[in-house]
Amino acid sequence: MSRLIYAIAFLILVSISNILKAQDTPNAWSLKECIDYAIKNNIQVKQGELSTQLQENSLRKAKADRYPNLTSQASQNESYGRSLTYSNTYENINSSQTNFNLSTNVPVFAGMQINNNIKAKNFDLKASMEDLQKVKDNITMNIASAYLEILFSQELVKVSEEQLAVTKQQIQQTQEKVDAGALAKGSLLDIQAQAAKEELTLVDNQNQLKLNYLKLAQLLELDSYKNFDIQKPELPTIRAEASLMSATEVYKNALALWPDIKSTEYKLQSSEYQLKAAKGTNYPTVSLYGNYFNLYNNKYTDTQGNEISFKDQLKNNERKGFGLQMDIPIFNRLQNKTQIDNAKINVLSKQLDVENAKKALRKDIETAETNAIAALNRYTSNQKAVAAMQEAFRYSEEKYNVGLVNALEYNQAKNNLAKAQSDLLQAKYEFIFRTKILDFYRGIPIEL
């Protein structure tokens, strides 16, 4: 009975341990989850969102310049000394007076400065939104690159482990032959040296894998990457006859989609309206104005010397007025001219920014296309090389097992195969990344 109790208790403890372990191990992240998390939590994205909010406030302020303003003023004056009275005599009077004033001004015409400024701010807002999208796109490409680097490192580690496993198996077989006197001990030492070399390669690849995990975790701004892992998606099959859209076609599509291009174009349009607003300073401005004034004095009296009440004073002292005002610029120390000249220079600068952004985009697309084609060619060549190296290694292994080749020749064939497999993997992931970048320029989301 006691043994049954102990057995049940042991099973319960094992189950609890497995549950806790499962809870401690987070789910593997997909590429989409990594990108979404990075965009949501990245500091540069948050700063870009704040910049966009500032532009929204600037646009709202520009629109509010159309509205009337309304200001009020109140003052309290204390007077001491001789004052003229209604009886035309002077007396020492200490008085207290309160003044109230309310005024408004409505812009009627300002040389189209307000409307042009609103349009300029609207384009500034659009440019800010595209700048924010540019930050998100850069993060997306960086995350995709880091994600693929992890997958590449994982396959390199797997290849290294397989190579080391084969070598260890060969060590065992060689040991048996040395013990039986069929091979010299030097062959065993050569194979053992090869195993040590492959163990070092495996450690290097494992360390690089950890560094790539760290790189991705840092891009995600995770506090710790200890339990961080990613999903291993089913990668697209690479065909030797794979065709790519030409850089010219990709460029044409990207011109209407790429945030950097749209941002510079919006900034150019903003500068053009800023120039129109600057030219508007040479025109007269017309505005309507109105005001209301009142006061109360504690020493005001009527002709009989009776103190006038607060209510009556407000009724008697009330003054209202309105009018139309025109301001004509004549000479203001060349401020308007300088402002216009600077606005013209700003337009020319923004035109160069647009041209430079288009050239940079074309350069990036052409580079990505060239790298993709080169990676495809390397992949095709390395496929043939791996097939040849596998057959050469198989043949070398058979000859080594019967003593027709020495350990050095066997190791050389094995190293050639390992290098060919590594080159094939590198070309594979390079091609996948470059094609994904080309698709991204065309507006296709990066997915695996």
TrEMBL record:
Family affiliation: Belongs to the outer membrane factor (OMF) (TC 1.B.17) family.
Signal peptide limits: 1-22
Alphabetical list of Gene3D superfamilies matching this protein: Outer membrane efflux proteins (OEP)
GO MF annotation list: efflux transmembrane transporter activity; porin activity
UniProt keyword annotation of Acetylation present: no
GO cellular component: cell outer membrane; efflux pump complex
SUPFAM superfamilies the record matches: Outer membrane efflux proteins (OEP) (SSF56954)
Keywords attached to this entry: Cell outer membrane, Coiled coil, Membrane, Signal, Transmembrane, Transmembrane beta strand, Transport
Cellular location(s): Cell outer membrane
Primary site of residence: membrane
Name the UniProt record assigns to this protein: Transporter
Coiled-coil positions: 351-378
